[in-house]
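// run 5 | inverse folding | seed 20
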């Protein structure tokens, strides 16, 4: 089945947004003040931050309970991000009304909301240390101020799957069609020319292949956010060049100088296939972790892409593992909330999805514990003190499709605390933790629950 195209209304919206943004971006090349900040020290993008480690910047209480909940009135796709200064941001998919919400973190009050042509397999706004947002849209990225005002827009060939700050000045954009470039985060103006990571993709439709991104099929050349080492301005991602038998793990680097450009450092084959799960960068930046098509977790060297070890976990996750401070990886869950187009047919649950912890040592990867009694529904979130939060299918007989949040001990997987999510049902869009230890869970129907 050919992938679905984005509706004409979305095309119109993004054309207007990008046209307005071009005027804003070209009005001045002057940066906004002298202050330059990297990504927010909070859950600032899809998988927590540039390394995609799913690591929170704050611990959570020993027994978190519901603080507030609210409905956004439309299906949600993607994890809630946060700015570290009291706000969280959630994207939805709707035919009318707002689809990007800024909420006050302590009570859920709506600060502002906007109608944007948001698009992509995971729609999460990237947030910088000033509270500014960078939002993936149909055929571009939009930059917003902390108050929701448009700062600039930059067109992309395809829908951005990576929108990440490389440093305090530069924003890396990689589209699902494999087109990468760096823009100035303050103005939206180009810093580098385009780099075609997956060669020339012969299509005029910027949404071509989007329904295949979440499952990592060859129809989507670059399906997931790159893991970024901001110390070296190096990014690691999976790419599947049209006409090539196997996908590849690719390292790209920002090479500054008189002619600043992105360059490919190395490519490593992924003969086992791949899923649409983001690459994760290790704590010491020496390894990256990638799920194969059958779910096996593989480790590769960041220096040359050499295959280091693999660990079968027994299922294929849809979301990336979370990385604990000691280097243990806790597997992600399976979810059907990742947008695959209006013609996609799938069940509410894609299980089984146990919680599995993998550690490396002596050049091998090994399973150190697993919870087969839990069916994980989305990404996990690791804390700085070695615990991990997971959202799982509730075992309450009265609500067989309910949802519960478990706080697990990262050393052995035992449950330290469990809280039922009241009235929640169906798939989960995402789980995140802000810089004050508030836990945000968003369901696919657009209900937001915050625990503290």
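// decoded
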């Amino acid at each position: 089945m050919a992938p679905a195209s984005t509706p004409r209304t979305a095309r119109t919206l993004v054309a207007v947004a990008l046209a307005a943004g071009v005027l804003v971006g070209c009005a001045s090349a002057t940066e906004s003040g002298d202050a330059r900040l990297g990504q927010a020290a909070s859950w600032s993008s899809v998988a927590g931050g540039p390394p995609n480690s799913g690591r929170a910047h704050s611990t959570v209480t020993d027994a978190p309970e519901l603080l507030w909940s609210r409905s956004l009135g439309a299906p949600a796709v993607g994890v809630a991000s946060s700015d570290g200064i009291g706000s969280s941001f959630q994207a939805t998919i709707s035919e009318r009304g707002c689809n990007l919400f800024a909420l006050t973190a302590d009570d859920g009050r709506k600060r502002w909301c906007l109608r944007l042509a948001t698009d992509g397999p995971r729609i999460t706004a990237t947030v910088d240390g000033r509270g500014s947002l960078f939002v993936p849209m149909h055929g571009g990225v939009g930059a917003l101020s902390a108050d929701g005002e448009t700062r600039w827009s930059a067109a992309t060939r395809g829908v951005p799957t990576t929108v990440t700050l490389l440093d305090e000045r530069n924003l890396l954009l990689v589209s699902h069609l494999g087109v990468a470039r760096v823009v100035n985060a303050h103005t939206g103006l180009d810093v580098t020319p385009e780099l075609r990571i997956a060669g020339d993709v012969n299509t005029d439709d910027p949404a071509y292949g989007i329904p295949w991104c979440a499952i990592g099929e060859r129809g989507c050349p670059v399906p997931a956010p790159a893991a970024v080492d901001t110390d070296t301005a190096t990014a690691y991602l999976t790419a599947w060049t049209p006409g090539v038998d196997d996908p590849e793990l690719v390292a790209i680097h920002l090479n500054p100088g008189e002619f600043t450009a992105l360059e490919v450092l190395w490519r490593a084959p992924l003969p086992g296939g791949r899923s649409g799960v983001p690459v994760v960068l290790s704590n010491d930046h020496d390894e990256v972790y990638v799920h194969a098509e059958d779910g096996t977790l593989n480790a590769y060297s960041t220096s040359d892409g050499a295959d280091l070890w693999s660990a079968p976990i027994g299922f294929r996750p849809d979301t990336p593992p979370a990385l604990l401070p000691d280097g243990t990886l806790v597997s992600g869950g399976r979810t059907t909330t990742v947008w695959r187009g209006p013609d996609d047919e799938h069940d509410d649950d894609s299980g089984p999805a146990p919680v599995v912890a993998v550690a490396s040592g002596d050049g091998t990867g090994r399973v150190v514990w697993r919870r087969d009694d839990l069916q994980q529904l989305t990404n996990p979130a690791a804390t700085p003190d070695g615990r991990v939060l997971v959202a799982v299918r509730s075992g309450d007989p009265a609500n067989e499709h309910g949802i519960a949040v478990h706080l697990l001990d990262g050393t052995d997987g035992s449950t330290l605390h469990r809280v039922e999510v009241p009235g929640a049902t169906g798939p989960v869009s995402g789980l995140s933790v802000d810089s004050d230890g508030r836990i945000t869970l968003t369901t696919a129907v657009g209900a937001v629950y915050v625990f503290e």
